Amino acid sequence: MAGLTRRRMLGGAAAATGGLLSSKAEARSPDPLITELQDWASQTGDGVDATPYGLPIEYERDVIRRNVPWLTADTISSVNFTPIHALDGTITPQGCAFERHHSGAIALRKQDYRLLINGLVENPIVLTYGDIERFPRETHVYFCECAANTGMEWAGAQLNGVQFTHGMLHNMEYTGVPLRVLLAEAGADMSDQNWLYIEGADASSNGRSLPMAKALDDCLVAFKANGEALRKEHGYPVRLVVPGWEGNLWVKWLRRIEVVAEAVESREETSKYTDLLANGTARKWSWVMDAKAVITSPSPQAPIFHGYGPLVISGLAWSGHGRITRVDVSLDGGVSWEIARLGYRGSDKALTRFYHDIHWNGNEMLLQARAIDETGYVQPTKSQLRAVRGENSIYHNNGVQTWYVDSQGVVENVEIT
Amino acid sequence: MAGLTRRRMLGGAAAATGGLLSSKAEARSPDPLITELQDWASQTGDGVDATPYGLPIEYERDVIRRNVPWLTADTISSVNFTPIHALDGTITPQGCAFERHHSGAIALRKQDYRLLINGLVENPIVLTYGDIERFPRETHVYFCECAANTGMEWAGAQLNGVQFTHGMLHNMEYTGVPLRVLLAEAGADMSDQNWLYIEGADASSNGRSLPMAKALDDCLVAFKANGEALRKEHGYPVRLVVPGWEGNLWVKWLRRIEVVAEAVESREETSKYTDLLANGTARKWSWVMDAKAVITSPSPQAPIFHGYGPLVISGLAWSGHGRITRVDVSLDGGVSWEIARLGYRGSDKALTRFYHDIHWNGNEMLLQARAIDETGYVQPTKSQLRAVRGENSIYHNNGVQTWYVDSQGVVENVEIT
Predict the structure, then answer these.
(1) Could you count the other beta carbons within 10 Å of the beta carbon of residue B281?
(2) Which residues in A287-313 are b (16+ Cβ under 10 Å) and which e?
C-alpha cells in the first residue's frame, strides 16, 4: 500500500468530473451532482422506526438467492444459491445465504424443540432448547459448502455465473455447544470405532452417519448464525455444524443423535452423496471439502463495466482441511501465476477473501485462481481432477474455474482443453 | 472443556423428559414431542424461492431495533438500538444493527453518488461509485459505538435493558478503500498538522473534523458491510469507517473530504460530541471509545427463565485502543472477580465475546464485567469515572454496569453506591 501513496491510480481523468470514463469535453463541464443542490441534501430522509428489522435498499434488489429451475423443479427438494458475484469480504448475510432442503423448510418453535440422544449411551437424554443454552458454548466462523457445489460442471462448462457454479456456499459465525459436551452428558460410548446417526425433524429426516472422531473434534450443536437466531431455512432453532465437511452433514432442525456401532448406510449416503467413478464403482465417505478458490469478480454476472485501467480482481478461497495459506491468480489460463493478496485471511475452515490489483489494458484474459491450504495441497485443474474421478460424478468438484474476459469486459464460463 | 466430558451438567433430571425443570412425575410420562409424529415431520415445509432475500422466522419477531421514545421524539433525528440482549457471537446482522441519523436516512443511488476531495490537494478529484471500486480494497471487522452509548446513565441507573444502555453498538465486517489511498490520488498535503473536514450527502451533512494522522492510519471508505452493500440507514452506498473512534465520525452517504489546515469546529463538534465536565468546561476531541464490557445475558430483557443449576453468563467487550486481552466477571458487585473465557476473541478494535459458565444456586447476584485492553487499561467503575468527569456529560460513559439478579432470575439495572 505504501507505493500507492506516491502515485495516482486513475490520473487526471477523474479530476473534477464524473470519473475515468468521462470524455475531455465532459471533463470541463460542471457535474450537476456536485454543483447543484440535490433533493436528498435539502429534504429529510426516512425514519427507521418503521423498519425495526431492515432489508437491503431497493437498488440492491438483484442481490438475492437464485435457483436453477431445471435443476430442482419443485419447491420440496430445492436449492438456492448465494449471490457471491455481488458480495465482498467473507461473511455471508443469512438473508442471501444458500440453502438446500429435501422436504421443505419447516417452522419449528423453540418450545416444541427436542433433541434426543440415545443408542450406545449410559443415559438417554432429551434436551429442550432451553437446556442446550445452559451448556458452555463456543463461537467460530466456518464455511458451509454443499457437496454438489460446482457439480454441474463435471462434463464441461455449463452455468454462466459464479452464483450458480460456486454459490452453494456460505460463511457464517456460528454459536453453539460442542457436540462432545452433549455426548458426555448422555454418557455416550466414545470409542473411536463408533458412529453417530444424525436426524433432522423434517419429513426427509436427512439421516447421515458421522464418525465419532469428527463428533469429538469440532462439531457444534448451533443455535445462532452471524449473532442472531438461525433462519427457518437454515434449521431454526438448532442445526449441526460439521466444519470443513460437506453441507449435507450439517443436519438442520436437529432431532436425534443415536450412538451406533456401525455406519447406517442410509438413503442419503448411498443413493446420494457418494461419488460415481469412471469404472462404475462409487467412492463413499468423501466428507471433506478439498481446497478451492474462485474469482467472484470479474465473472459472468459481474462484468467489467468501467473500461480500461485499474481493475480489482477479487475472489474466495477455502479448505475443509484447515487454513488457506496462499492463492494464485492467472490471467492467461494457467500459463503463468501471480500470488494474490489475502485481503481477509479466514480462520480454520473459513472463507478467505483474496484480491489481485491489476492494470487492465483491454487484452482478452483467461482468469483463474487456485488455492493452497496449510497441508500443502494445491487445488487441481479440471483435467487433473477428471483423470482421477471421471466425468460421471456430481459431488466434490474442486477443479480450477476459468473465466474468459473479452476486450469489452464481458465474461464467460469456459474450459481450457 | 476436558473436565466437562467426564461429568454430567444437567444430571438425571434431563433424562427422557422435557428437561431440567420437569417434575419427577412428569419425568416418567412420555413426551409427545418425542413419542408422537408431528406435523412438521409428516408434511413438507415451505419452499424458499418466494423469499430470495430472507427475514428472521416469525418467532423471533422481538429481536429488533428499538428506540427510546422520549430520547428522540421525531424520526428526523433519531436512534435505534441493537437488540444485543438477544444476540450471541460478535457479528451484528445489518438488519438489526443500530443506526443514528440527524436528518433521516436518505436513498442515494450508486449512479448519483459522487465523492469530492478538495482543499489542500494538488488535484481536486470527484470519484464516482465505480471509481472507488477500482482502488485496492481491504476487509476488516470493526465495532462502531455511538459516543452517547450508555449516555443516559451518567446520573444513575435509568434504562432497564442492555439494548438501551449499551445497544448503540454494532460490529461488522467492512470492505472498502483505505482513505490514505484516495488522499494520495488527490495529491493531498498529508502534513501531520492538517485535518480533514468530512461531510455526508444528507441535509444535516454531519460535518466533522478528522486529524490527518488517523486518516492515514486505518480509516476506510467503505461500501460493503458483512459482505453485502451497506443498508440505506448505514450510509448506502458509501460511508467512512473510523476504527475505534466515536460513531458520529463514521460519516454516512460520504460526499466530501476537504483537506484543511485547522479543525473546523463545526456544529457537530461544539454543540454536540464534547464532554461537559463538573466545573462547567467541556472536553473536546474525545474521539476514542475507551475499553468497555457489558453482560448481555442475563440482563433485564434476558432474565434467567430455567431455574437453578448451570447458567451461561455472556457478554461483549471492546476497546478503541486495540484488542481486548481479558474480561473479568463479578457475581457480587465487584467484591471478587473471576477471569471470563474469551469465547471469540475479536481482532483489533472489534467486539470480543466472553462467556462465564457458573452453577447458579438461586442466590441473589450483582453481576458486573470489566474489560482490560492491550494497553493495560482497566475499565473504571462508575464512581471512578464520575470522580473525573462529573455527571453532566452525555458521551463516553464506559463505567462498569451492574445487573441485580433476584432469586427468581429477574434482572434489574442498578447502581452500587
Answers:
(1) 10
(2) bebbbbbbbbbbbbbbbbebeebbbbb
DSSP collapsed to 3 states, B172-195 = EEEEEEEHHHHHHHCCECCCCCCE
- Residue B380 Cα, gap to closest chain A Cα (Å): 28
**Chain A residues in contact with B203 (beta carbon < 8 A):** 40-45
Fold of B94-282: Sulfite Oxidase; Chain A, domain 2 (3.90.420)
Residues A316/A92, Cβ–Cβ less than 8 Å: no
Q: Is B66 on the interface with A (CB under 8 A)?
A: yes
Q: Is the minimum CB–CB distance between B2 and chain A shorter than 8 Å?
A: no
pLDDT reported for residue A19: 40
Its ipTM equals: 0.94
User: Which tens digit of pLDDT belongs to each residue from A251-299?
Assistant: 999 999 999 999 999 988 988 889 999 999 999 999 999 999 999 999 9
Chain B residues touching residue A4 (CB < 8 angstroms): 135-136, 181, 184
Out of A75, A108, A190, the one facing B47 most closely (by C-beta) is A75
A403 CB-side CA count, 13 A: 32
Does A227 touch chain B if contact means CB atoms closer than 8 Å? yes
**Separation in Å, CA of B296 to nearest CA in chain A:** 12
A196 vs A221: CA distance, rounded Å? 14
Tell me what pLDDT residue A5 has.
38
The domain made up of B292-414 is a member of CATH 2.60.40.650: yes
Q: Identity (one letter) of the amino acid at B313? A: I
pTM above 0.90, yes or no: yes
Of B89, B131, B341, the CB nearest to A20: B131
Do the bridges between strand A169-178 and strand A239-241 make them parallel or antiparallel, or are there none, so unpaired? unpaired
B55: nearest CA partner in chain A: A95
* Contact flag B173-A344 (C-beta cutoff 8 Å): yes
Residue pLDDT, tens place only, B335-387 = 999 999 999 888 899 999 999 999 999 999 999 999 999 999 999 999 999 99
Give the mean model confidence (pLDDT) for residues B295-300: 98
Amino acid identity, position B336: S
Residue B59 pLDDT grade (very low, low, confident, very high; cuts 50, 70, 90): very high
CA distance A17 to A20: 8
Domain ranges of chain A: 94-282, 292-414
